[in-house]
Design a protein that fits this description.
It is elongated, with a radius of gyration of 43 Å. By secondary structure, the chain is mainly alpha-helical. The longest helix has 26 residues. It has a 4-stranded mixed β-sheet. Strands 1-8 form a two-stranded antiparallel ribbon. The C terminus is likely disordered.
Length: 691
């Protein structure tokens, strides 16, 4: 079977990219709908202690009022108290131990040193005491039935006949030994220690607790308990408008909600419920795609990035659905803020906020108290995005977690005050799920790394690592081309300051600036900043060859960066920092010395492309300005002003900034920053006229 070449595969992917995108959207919608709970949504929202502001709620049918959790717990406790634990009587134990007593007595009597005449008396007294103990019964007490009192009533089962007794009438092993000792104390003619030693070795339970039979009885009585109390009749007012939702009304509303859901499950059309969920989720996913199309076309065109976004959204909503199905699991344990953090780090703030809002909106249809849920999660999500707007240090994750926790706490206090109206009734354990949620949010860090590796995305965290000057390529640059390394540091400072003021990714610019001239490592002495001895190897080369060596540092840099697996977004700075400009020094020198010769201008021109973003455009300007400033013999305010204006105008006139999305206003800001920083670098004093 013939196989498609790599180029053919890429062509097919480009051809069917839109169809692939639609398929991913449909798959995501179907997966989300599949995981969501399939039940009709109760239309009313209510909370205990709040005023019912809607019209009178009339019951459309009869339904039973459910007992509260406290009422059920009280009923269960009362029912369990009515059950007496079952003990099985084993008469064979007494016979075995009494016979064993006789044998033990015979063995130990010979070494007792007691008169033989006393033997029968000792035997009869010990046998009598042991038989009396077994006739009453020996057992082990079970702590769960004591309930603050050592003794309790039990049922003794023997031959399918049950007899109730209190354990105070029976012996434990300790009680039996104490009883025998007490009886022997009354007999001054008997050595108590001798008999007690034999008797205690023959004490064994003949009443054994039957936990299986007792548990079965307890289960039966619990299953027989009624879960309801009273009825609400059809046409009866459940809650009137303006009424305060007290405990009684709240329980009626809870019961009505349960009856509604059960009725919808039986009589409702599940296909319509499914269709409703499909429409709601489709609108949310569709709005997300429209946002990408209108405001982030770069992401919209890249199905790899679209698939990542849909994966994160689907994964979070599937996790929420799982939590709703497990009703004992509090939905606030789920780290909702992990989604905006991941999207913010991998993409941008607007997209993170947009996605977070859509996720919370969908979730609000299925969680209890949806308004409270939406308030908690929207505010926390916004705070998580704002707290890492500019990620420059790893510890910002921890700071962000603390800020999110504080936001949850303030929201929790506010809602608790509205609900309870008092500080004393707040259940502080209800805040625990929020703390756990914030702790789980820290999983965003390893998830971001995983997404970066799988989807080939460069996050701010990776850029922080790349800007470390101990990185292998930068160490090599500093060692082999120290002048270029210092030039790159200055360019990074200029470009970073400029992009910060006009708006852009300052971390990306810094990383690009540090690596933009990495190709000069191949032939460092051919670049003037690395020539310290005064020797210039270009003096012995033709102008064309010199120009090609200079131009080649771009392709060499791209090759080295890809070999070190630098992100393409950083490699773009290497490719574009000279655009498609000419190496004017060698070009003009050639024209001056060989005016009669025809020459292909492209020999002296960089291959491009020109910068295509604010960041790459700012780097080009910073690189040219910093390099040219080194040629100033006596830098002063006027010469620096003229230099910056001239270079920026030249780049603008050459069309090098046409694709960079830099406005004229941005250029004025950039020039002002470059001038100010260059004057600081060269310690230029600004004269001030004093009149």
């Amino acid at each position: 079977m013939a196989t498609l070449s790599a180029s053919r595969q890429r062509a097919l992917f480009r051809k069917y990219a839109r169809n692939i995108k639609y398929f991913m959207m449909l798959l995501s919608i179907c997966l989300i709908v599949y995981t969501l709970p399939k039940q009709a949504k109760f239309r009313y929202e209510y909370e205990k202690g709040r005023i019912w502001n809607q019209k009178d709620l009339i019951s459309p049918y009869n339904f039973a009022i459910l007992k509260t959790g406290q009422e059920l717990a009280a009923d269960q406790e009362a029912a369990l108290r009515s059950i007496t634990p079952i003990y099985q009587l084993q008469p064979d134990v007494a016979d075995q131990q009494l016979n064993g007593f006789k044998n033990d007595f015979e063995i130990k009597w010979h070494n007792a040193g007691i008169s033989e005449k006393q033997k029968e008396k000792y035997l009869q007294e010990g046998y009598r005491l042991l038989k009396e103990v077994y006739d009453r019964g020996i057992l082990t007490l079970v702590s769960k039935y004591q309930r603050g009192n050592e003794n309790y009533t039990i049922s003794i089962l023997y031959k399918n006949t049950a007899t109730d007794k209190n354990t105070i009438e029976l012996f434990t092993r300790e009680r039996a030994i104490a009883y025998c000792a007490e009886q022997l104390d009354k007999r001054k003619d008997i050595d108590k220690a001798f008999l007690i030693n034999i008797i205690q070795n023959r004490l064994q339970n003949n009443l054994n607790y039957d936990d299986k039979l007792t548990a079965r009885l307890e289960k039966e009585v619990l299953e027989g308990l009624s879960l309801t109390r009273g009825m609400v009749q059809k046409g009866e007012v459940i809650v009137a408008k303006g009424s305060v939702i007290n405990d009684e009304i709240y329980q009626k509303l809870q019961s009505y909600k349960k009856a509604f859901e059960d009725n919808a499950r039986v009589n409702g059309n599940p296909n319509l419920v499914l269709l409703g969920q499909f429409l709601l989720v489709s609108i949310a996913v569709g709005l997300l795609m429209i946002f990408l199309y209108l405001f982030r076309k770069d992401i919209y065109r890249d199905n790899r990035l679209v698939s990542l976004i849909l994966l994160v959204v689907t994964g979070m909503l599937a996790t929420l659905s799982w939590a709703i199905r497990i009703q004992e699991f509090n939905v606030y344990y789920i780290p909702y803020c992990i989604v905006p953090i991941i999207i913010r780090i991998l993409f941008d703030t607007r997209l993170a906020l947009n996605i977070h809002l859509l996720v919370v909106l969908i979730a609000g249809f299925f969680v209890p108290n949806s308004f409270e849920f939406a308030y908690f999660e929207i505010t926390a999500g916004m705070v998580s995005i704002y707290s890492i707007k500019n990620l420059v240090r790893r510890d910002q994750f921890l700071v962000s977690a603390l800020i999110i926790t504080f936001t949850y706490f303030i929201s929790f206090l506010g809602i608790s005050f509205i609900r309870e109206g008092t500080f004393l009734n707040i259940d502080w354990m209800d805040f625990l799920p929020f703390v756990v949620s914030v702790m789980l949010t820290l999983l965003a860090y390893p998830l971001i790394y995983a997404f970066e590796q799988v989807f080939q995305i460069t996050s701010d965290i990776t850029l922080i690592e790349l800007t470390n000057t101990n990185a292998p390529l930068l160490r090599e640059l500093a060692f082999n081309a120290p002048g270029t390394f210092q030039h790159s540091l200055q360019v990074a400072n200029l470009a970073e300051s400029a992009i910060y003021n006009i708006g852009g990714n300052s971390l990306l610019v810094r990383a690009g600036a540090l690596y933009h001239d990495i190709g000069k490592v191949e032939n460092p002495l051919y670049f003037i900043e690395n020539q310290s001895s005064g020797f210039n190897p270009h003096d012995k080369l033709p102008y064309e060859e010199s120009a090609q060596i200079i131009i080649r540092h771009v392709s060499n840099g791209v090759e080295m960066a890809r070999k070190e697996r630098l992100p393409e977004i950083v490699i773009d700075f290497i490719r574009t920092h000279h655009g498609n400009t000419r190496v004017d020094y060698f070009y003009q020198s050639f024209l001056k010395n060989f005016p009669e010769k025809l020459i292909d201008e492209n020999i002296f021109r960089y291959p491009g492309p020109i910068p295509f973003s604010k960041e790459t455009g700012v780097l080009m300007l910073a690189d040219s300005v910093e390099a040219a400033s080194r040629s100033l013999r006596e830098p002063d305010a006027q010469s620096i002003n003229d230099l910056v204006d001239r270079i920026v105008s030249y780049k603008l006139n050459q069309g090098q900034l046409n694709d960079s999305d830099i406005t004229l206003k941005d250029l004025e800001t950039i020039k002002a920053i470059f001038k100010k920083m260059l004057m600081s670098i060269y310690h230029v004093r600004i004269d001030i006229d004093i009149k």
